[in-house]
Amino acid sequence: MSALTTAPSLGWQARQPIRRGEHQGHTSGLAPGLVQGNLMILPQALAADFLLFCQRNPKSCPLLAVSEPGDPFLPTLGQDIDIRSDVPSYRVWRDGMLVHQPSDLTALWQDDFVTFVLGCSFSFEQALIEAGIPLRHVQQGRNVAMYRTNVPTQSAGPFAGPMVVSMRPMTPADAIRAVQVTSRFAQVHGAPVHLGRPDLIGIADLAQPDFGDPVDIGPDEIPVFWACGVTPQSVAMATRPPLCITHSPGCMLVTDWLNHQLATG
Amino acid sequence: MSALTTAPSLGWQARQPIRRGEHQGHTSGLAPGLVQGNLMILPQALAADFLLFCQRNPKSCPLLAVSEPGDPFLPTLGQDIDIRSDVPSYRVWRDGMLVHQPSDLTALWQDDFVTFVLGCSFSFEQALIEAGIPLRHVQQGRNVAMYRTNVPTQSAGPFAGPMVVSMRPMTPADAIRAVQVTSRFAQVHGAPVHLGRPDLIGIADLAQPDFGDPVDIGPDEIPVFWACGVTPQSVAMATRPPLCITHSPGCMLVTDWLNHQLATG
């Protein structure tokens, strides 16, 4: 652990139990108001193409930071962040298969690892809740419902495949307000990509999400779809990279950034 | 006619054939880029309540200007505007019944007349078209489709009744973009009030609008609804005012304002 030379940030305080291995569960609600990020670590040989994939698909892959090869630190995201220890639970994938779920990467670290941290919907969900828009999966204590679509991403090198979306049901008036609110958060998926007609993007049955949990949809509600951070994971796994490391679902990197700082306009 | 003391504005030039009675038809496309307004003239006895109604229902009744009682001039809206002559065609209503459709009000003018000019959808439609969003009624050369809803307005004095909405069909992606674009135009109805589910606001059949023309809706489109300037007319007529003057449908007041000047954000 590095010695801090300045006062500890709120994010730093939240990360210490994680670093010590005392908190290995999900980070939802852990540090209210702070930006949390999705993690993708790839060998340098794949990093340039993955970076290009993110550039071409910013709504699915909103990049918050990219490390130097081999460098486990992410100083732009927060005080003293060490990506080898500061995420509660990691998933290690070899040839696209999950082989290990450690709570620390120090023993696995390689000099050619490049770390990508991508924005996550927690940030815009805070803004929606603060705008008075109820979120069903939060009310029901479930994971958000996610679906593979028939909407292709823009490919880059080996990275290609369909967009994955998350779905939140709401009244049409709330859907309009949600477009306004989330348009201000381009770094964390931004405005919805679709609404009202799941059939048009290849979703046959909202009750059967591909990831996460189904949620109830009221008779006066429509489904509203956002590009989802599962997209880059799904696309990366399909290439069966020799080695790849992600966070475990829901176990995100807590940064020092404030969700409110991401708002534009 | 007043003598101009400064160079003639584009709006002034557009209004001269109207003032002279040479142009008595609709104003669509007449002065591209300039704000056009809906007209409502009421006796002073009803003006305070109507002003309050507009304040309480800003999405249906976006006020651009209100005159002093008896004053036919609207200097904030444009150079030398005389509301008695500068609209191509007027409708005179007595006790809520259309009695006369003159092209000039000079002979009818009363010292207690108060003029209300309200924003109109032409302004945000220019922004939608410039944003690359096609408008079906424009493509089909029809009037926009308008519907009475079951959404009540906030009443003020005798003024009460349901909101009237205009409907534009578009793809879900264009609907999301349209929310973003029109949110910047609060003075001309602003963001949509509803989308995707006409049944939820009391519209049984989109093919049978209450005003305007039906338009085709594609299989990949959803209906998007905006609060409509017909609302205040509809509400005012229902009170059967002893005397009331409006513009004839489509025959608007051309102002000196630029549509682009209305954009916020």
Entry summary:
Chains A, B: Pfam families: D-Glu_cyclase (PF07286). The structure is a homodimer of 265-residue chains. Chain A has helices at residues 10-19, 44-56, 122-130, 136-139, 172-183, 230-238, and strands spanning 34-43, 63-66, 90-94, 97-100, 113-119, 145-152, 162-170, 194-195, 222-227, 244-247, 253-258.
Any descriptors?
265 residues; four-stranded antiparallel β-sheet; alpha+beta; PSTPO5379-like; 11 strands; PSTPO5379-like fold; seven-stranded antiparallel β-sheet; globular; homodimer
Q: Sheet with the most strands of chain A?
A: 7 strands, antiparallel
Name the shape of chain A in a single word: globular
Largest interface: A-B, 19 and 19 residues
Structural class of chain A: alpha+beta
pLDDT < 50 stretches of chain A: none
Pfam families (chains A, B): D-Glu_cyclase
Protein name (chains A, B): Putative hydro-lyase PSQ39_12770
Enzyme class (chains A, B): lyase
Family (chains A, B): Belongs to the D-glutamate cyclase family.
What features would you describe in this structure?
Two copies of one chain form a homodimer. With 265 residues, chain A is of the alpha+beta class. Chain A has two domains: 10-120 and 235-262, 3-Layer(aba) Sandwich (PSTPO5379-like); 122-232, 2-Layer Sandwich (PSTPO5379-like fold), CATH 3.30.2040.10. Helices cover 22% and strands 25% of the residues of chain A. Chain A has six helices and eleven strands. Chain A has helices spanning 10-19, 44-56, 122-130, 136-139, 172-183, 230-238; strands at 34-43, 63-66, 90-94, 97-100, 113-119, 145-152, 162-170, 194-195, 222-227, 244-247, 253-258. In chain A, the strands form two sheets. In chain A, strands 1, 2, 3, 4, 5, 10 and 11 form a seven-stranded antiparallel beta sheet that branches. A four-stranded antiparallel beta sheet of chain A has the order 6-7-9-8. In chain A, a hairpin with a 2-residue loop joins strand 3 (90-94) and strand 4 (97-100). The first copy, chain A, is globular, with a radius of gyration of 18 Å. Chain A starts with 9 loop residues before the first helix and ends in a 7-residue tail after the last strand. The model of chain A has no long low-confidence stretch (mean pLDDT 94). The A-B interface holds A 171-173, 175-176, 179-180, 183, 191-197, 200, 220, 222, 265 and B 171-173, 175-176, 179-180, 183, 191-197, 200, 220, 222, 265. Chains A, B: It comes from Curvibacter microcysteis. Chains A, B: InterPro entries: D-Glu_cyclase (IPR009906), Putative_hydro-lyase (IPR038021), UPF0317 (IPR016938). Chains A, B: Keywords: Lyase.
